[in-house]
Amino acid sequence: MKLRNIALCLLLVGGLSASCIREDNSDCYNTYRLALSYLGDGTTEIFQQKINRVDLYVFDQNSNCVSSNRLSDAEMQAQLVTLPPLDPGDYRFVFVGNAYETKVENLDSKDLSKITFAADDYINGETVSGNDSLYWSSIDYTIEPFSAYEKEETKTAYFASSHYNIIVEVVNAPENIGKHPKIELVGVSPQTDFHNTAKGQATDYIMETEHDGIKTTTAVNNIMRHKNHKDVYLRVTGEDGTPVAIINFDEHIERFKEFINPELHECTIPFLIEFGTPGYPVPDDNICLEVTISIPSWFIQLVTPDFKK
To answer: pTM for this structure?
Structure first.
């Protein structure tokens, strides 16, 4: 029986090989590969440090989505994808990285500007706290007809960031504001299309917060990489619903442009909201404290290691 199985396997292999030397080459394909790369804002490869999961979408020349799949662990580790057999023609490959709590919509629209990815909560009509640390890549590839000589080709898909990292610290908040003030991101673009352009009806995010048990409330999350900062605000609201700080993103970025560059792939936009006079204790009965808006000193030192106070 084992000899019979071996003989059958040999016949199958022989049949597959023969199919590529007949005049009908319909079962024959060249080998095309895509290498995956993310350099961030430097020249060193940091794909493995920043991108942990990738979904691939394949579109034909009519923008029909003909295939989609999640890359395997082996492909992620090797940063190399061997393309599946495809009919000759022009294709576009779109990669979305780190889509853990992110969904893709409108794949059948035949228009990459209408195909979008967004937070699950946004798509489900629920309150959004932020986005995944998303990355994107797009590359065109021409699949040629098979010829007498098999062809092997590898192109590189370079990833770009699709998000900004937002860090908010609220320090010395008085009792009437509470240990967990409401921290909102107002007027945020909730979607990004397959051209890596943020869009969608302006939406408010409510960030999740943590308190250190002493004096600082912190909120950390991501938003889509919107281009218009003029209509986006950070709003901090006390427990009684009264806004205690409203900060325009455009003005904040301009004020601290030495440390915040929204053109960078790895861009963090930090906020520090301090109540009372810095360096002095906050009296328990003072409910009308001065509010100072700045950025954390640790962030300044991180961006400029030689910074000295």
So the answer is: 0.86
